[in-house]
User: Fold these one by one.
Assistant:
Number 1:
Amino acid sequence: MKTPDDPDKDLFREAMREVKRLRTENEAPQPPKPIAKARFTRLDRREVLRESLQPPADDLLLGTGDELCFRRPHISQDILVKLRRGHYVVDAEIDLHGLNGAQAQEALRDFVANAIHRDFRCIRIVHGKGRRSGPRGPVLKNIVNRWLQHIDPVLAFASARAVDGGSGAVYALLKTKR
């Protein structure tokens, strides 16, 4: 607090305004922080995405279960139940029938990327039941199952209600910016 009878304090502060404190001997100079580098380049991300779309080398790892169901650990079971019951409005849909594995992967990648970009909350992916897939089992269903689990904005997915395709389709819940 300034006192009117002590002008020396004001003069001292004015004289010392641009003075910088000297380091003491036990105070080491701080090295400059390194420049931040991106951990992944676009090519790296594409390679990771490409690998995630490949089926596992061991065919025994391919699931042949009828219903698909997945949720991230922070998503409650109640949300998954609502998703399975069709309580979310489906903002967009893709039908992968008639596509081979590579075509389905590309179509699915583009569809999900577009849905995320457009800030959709819920999408439906029709993959079929794989009845004509032969001994390998439901190829498209397995691609959808595996790929959706590797996409961070996909919070949960579950097989659709019977009227929406049953075990031949999934509802996927996406993270939104809203």
Number 2:
Amino acid sequence: MTYKPLNLTPELHEYLLAHSTPPDPIIADLIAETRQNLPEAAGMQVAPEQAAFLKMLATVTGAKRAVEIGTFTGLSALAIARGLGADGRLNCYDISTEFTDIARRYWARAGVDDRIELRIGPAADSIRDLPEDEHLDLVFIDADKENYTNYWNALLPRVRKGGLVLVDNVLWSGRVLDPQNDRDRGVADFNAAAVGDPRVELVIVPIGDGITMARKK
């Protein structure tokens, strides 16, 4: 039998959403506010099914200590924090107070603000403050594409064996096949480095714009 990649048409995507657990009112409101108030930037928000995927991964792996690089208006952080549970801790790194002020309101509304520590500023600088031992259960990278490989190399040594590193936008709307600028090349170069990294086993999951799911050996 010849394998045929799935063509996820808009109609099939709507079917996918209709047959998945729907976003609760908090997530639905966050998505709606982001799209309404930040229409030009709303594409940076993870898709609803990606948020559900992140929450489920955090839950089923029993993750308690997590890091997120690139928070935007906080949907992915909200999903991860819910999956970590009441005793979990999530460190978020972003450079925008405009976007993350929205995130803080929704984290508080969801009752997860006490599990999230937000640091504003270049993530590369703040990561250095993290303990250097293998203490992280889950990492989600979704920030400036040119630094994907740098974030990976800084955080992977801090992930415990069996922990997960998730990296968003790794298919980059197909532009990884023919990179034309620094962001394109940043994603393509990261993909090449990650698949050749002997410290992990990984798979690219074709959800949203593609998520690399890497398990540390």
